[in-house]
Amino acid sequence: MTTSADAAPYTFPSDLLEAQRAFVGLRAELRALQARLPWSREPLDGWEPIEEHGRKHPGREASEGWTEQEAAENDRLWKKLREAAAAVSCHKHWEQFQGAEAIAARQALKRATLAPAGTLTPVDRAVTA
């Protein structure tokens, strides 16, 4: 099946590209923060690993919890990430796509924000069923 997507590369409005880049950056920033934080937001005791019915359940060391600043930064990043996700997913640009083409266009946006200068390959343009 040949579609307009096969004939020409997807083009994206600059505000949509900017919103997608913001989303990717915020997600990376949030993940980096969470990787540094204790496993539990609140102070909690840990537990020993156990084996039950042939399945191993790993234990956890006690968590001292997060500081107020760490919790506030986590909450701030989550809020901004949700706003960026809404800006991307609710953008008017998506109204022109249906079905598999919408999925392909969304994937192309993800790759376009990773590619230098918005260059897209034929794979980015392909619409697969």
Describe this structure in words.
- The structure is a single chain.
- This protein has 129 residues and is mainly α.
- The protein has a domain at 11-39 and 67-124.
- It has helices spanning 4-7, 14-36, 68-89, 99-112, 122-125; strands spanning 50-52, 55-57.
- α2 (14-36) runs antiparallel to α3.
- The N and C termini lie close together (9 Å).
Quick overview:
With 129 residues, this protein is mainly alpha-helical. It has helices spanning 4-7, 14-36, 68-89, 99-112, 122-125; strands at 50-52, 55-57.
What is the element layout, followed by pairings?
Blueprint: H1 4-7, H2 14-36, E1 50-52, E2 55-57, H3 68-89, H4 99-112, H5 122-125
Antiparallel strand pairs: 1-2
